[in-house]
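$ run holo --ligand "adenosine-5'-diphosphate" --emit tokens
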Amino acid sequence: MTLFPLKRFFTRLMLSYLVITLAVLSVISIVFITLMQRYFFSVEGWQLVSRGEKAGSLLQEPLLRNDLPALRKLTETLAFSYDASLWVTDKYGAVLANPGADPDRLGLSVEQGEIEHVLSGNVITKQITGPGYNSLFYMAPIYEPGYDPEDENGDAGDAAPVIGSLAISFPLGRATGTVAGITRLGIYAAAGAVALAVIIAYSLSRQISRPVEEMSRVALELSQGRFDQRVSCHTGDELGHLAKTLNYAVDRVSETIEQQQHSVKLQRDFISDISHEFRAPLTTLRGFLELMRSGRINSSDQSRYLEIMYADTLHLSRLVQDLLELASLESLQITLVKEMHDLGPLLKSSARHLQLAAEEKDAILEVQIASGLPSIPVDANRFHQVVVNLIENAIRYSPPGGVVAVKADAEEQGVTIKVSDCGKGISEAELPFIWDRFYKVDKARTRSDTGSGLGLAIVRRIVEMHGGRVAAESAPGQGSAFSFWLPVEDAALT
Ligand code: ADP
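-- output --
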């Protein structure tokens, strides 16, 4: 997998920012330059009209008198002071004075029809551009003195008393220069703005694309089975939220995988433990059966071998029974039938059950129930199973004549039942493991004097299903004490 699409994502983001910025800048520049041009040219136009009107009124007198020297002198003065080209025509359109101007330029600037239009009382204002020149042009009629074309009370039927016309051509060089200077400044500012836009677009695009790149990298690592990677994006926006959600999802996935790996390991261990537990008695059975089949066992040994085979068969049958029991307890297929019970009578009944086994081993079984024990919600059959397993162990691992004591005391909002013996005890190193399936302290013991190795695992499971806990204390050579505590309150109901 390449990171090429991510690069494209970053590039696309950056280009989008740039295109938007450039588009906005261009629109602003065009609008600004157009408005600026209009403003400067309208100021120039307004000045030209007012000068034209003023010049027209000054020229009325010499024009009416047909005083050509005075007319030319006045137009020269006006052309000089306005820094413009001037033309004065008579009422037939013939040029009478043209200081500072090429007389033919009037013909180039206006058509004959336009001159007639002006001589009939109209004004022309326009911009004239050509190779090497750019000017504002104004042409208006000159009326008889005393006539005001704006006076609406004049006789509508009378023709306007036009005695000539005035044309002014005013170069726009200064305005164009100012506009060009401001435009140049605008271009520099726009170039600076574009450079700034590139930097901002780059950093914004990085800010957005970096978490996306990081998430993509983590997703890639996940797809390759590496679950220790997390996204480090702590922005409070949607991307930050997405990164948090991704990290949370990765946490959940890795937890689930760990749990699955753990349960696969448990299963594997369980299968290997079972095969180990079954292999030993089955091998013995098979060996004896083969010997018997081959007829190599003499009749005096046969009954002893049969006893061993019988013990192994019992052991196997107990193993299968305990395995099924533990499997069903662990698979949660069993639901407890809890009822409120006084534990004293239950304990005594379980102890009575094992009295014969204790006598067979010359063990003394004592039961001490503290007075005023609270009633406890328990499944009586399961409680019996727990007590029997613990007492059976205590009898099994006690020396002949040993005392097995069963005590019940009120403790911590519940009742603690303790089964102690004076057997050989368990070392501190072994103690934490005795609740595990198939764990046996003395691996060398014969199958006839040990159980299935599942008894304590079943005890722990049943006690925990009641919301209680188990504990074991032991001093090697002095005995062991196995206890469990059950709560007064049913945790499942509170
Ligand atoms: P088992 O059926 O083999 O007794 P358990 O799960 O009941 O299996 O006990 C696990 C191991 O804990 C036993 O094999 C034994 O080594 C040890 N154990 C259990 N109870 C006692 C006890 N009262 N005294 C000494 N060791 C004990």
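-- notes --
The longest helix spans residues 4-65.
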